[in-house]
UniProtKB/TrEMBL annotation:
Name the record gives this protein: Molybdate ABC transporter substrate-binding protein
NCBIfam families reported for this sequence: modA
Family: Belongs to the bacterial solute-binding protein ModA family.
Signal peptide: 1-19
Entry annotated with the keyword Cell wall biogenesis/degradation: no
Binding annotation for molybdate: 38, 66, 148, 175, 193
Length: 256
């Protein structure tokens, strides 16, 4: 009996030792990616494919408004790759020498739409039909930190509507929150990307915003200068430009 207990203890010790060895295996690598919230559905799928192709790699995603993510990086957040929904926040990090400038790429594009609840009877054929009398609550990403909000502000300003509607705005931390506001009825209409329609079942498009009213929506990506896995991060940027990843982005409503 004592001998059996001894052998069992030895077996358990071996298993624990093996598990510890695996968890500290130097070949296992983790890649930290901060990305615009609008990329969440597509990027989850792209990351899973990258991990499948690289079994020793684990990707950790941090999804939020591009401005918030850039500010986190400025404050020292450990990030390997940054994927922004606009050029501005990538430029901000570049000016702070926080990017490996040679790695910066543009990998996809998007468009801006005005949405409402799917069950809403509302009809809007263009932004010029908006007025503070017709809509009390308009959800929009905070233009100071959310590119979708900045694009929407440009479009409304170009039509002379921003000041007229400003008392109706419900500012959101990212486009995901705009979608939530619309789906839950906490706002009547809202500005999001065309791709966001692929990750929200309870909304519908009222109108697509004229692309001449706002800066082209081009998504840049780059490796951070403080990345602990710069070569692996570069591999990920190559992968996101591949036919496989681009097909996923297209399926989620992005274009290139």
């Amino acid at each position: 009996m004592v001998k059996r207990l001894f052998m069992l203890c030895m077996l358990l010790s071996t298993l624990v030792a093996c598990d510890s060895t695996e968890s500290t295996d130097p070949s296992n690598k983790e890649l930290f990616i901060s990305a615009a919230a609008s990329l969440s559905g597509a990027l989850n799928e792209i990351s899973e494919k990258f991990e499948a192709n690289n079994p020793n790699v684990t990707i950790t995603l941090n999804m939020s408004g591009s401005g918030k993510l850039a500010q986190q990086i400025q404050q020292g957040a450990p990030v390997d790759v940054f994927l922004s929904a606009d050029q501005h926040w990538m430029d901000v990090l570049a000016s702070d020498n926080l990017l490996l400038s040679s790695t910066r790429i543009n990998f996809t594009k998007n468009n801006l739409v005005l949405i409402t609840q799917k069950k809403s009877p509302g009809i809007v054929r263009g932004l010029n039909e908006l007025s503070k009398e017709s809509f009390d609550q308009i959800a929009i990403g905070n233009p100071k930190s959310v590119p979708a909000g900045s694009y929407a502000k440009d479009a409304l300003t170009n039509l002379g509507l921003w000041d007229e509607l400003k008392d109706s705005f419900v500012f959101a931390k990212d486009v995901s929150q705009v979608l939530t506001y619309i789906e839950t009825g906490n706002a009547e209409i809202g500005f999001v990307y065309g791709s966001d329609l692929h990750r929200a079942e309870g909304v519908k498009v009222l109108t697509e915003i004229d692309k001449e009213l706002y800066t082209p929506i081009v998504y840049p990506a780059a490796v951070l200068s403080e990345s602990e896995q710069p070569e692996l991060a570069k591999e990920f940027l190559s992968f996101i430009q591949s036919d496989s990843a681009q097909t996923i982005l297209k399926n989620y409503g992005f274009s290139y």
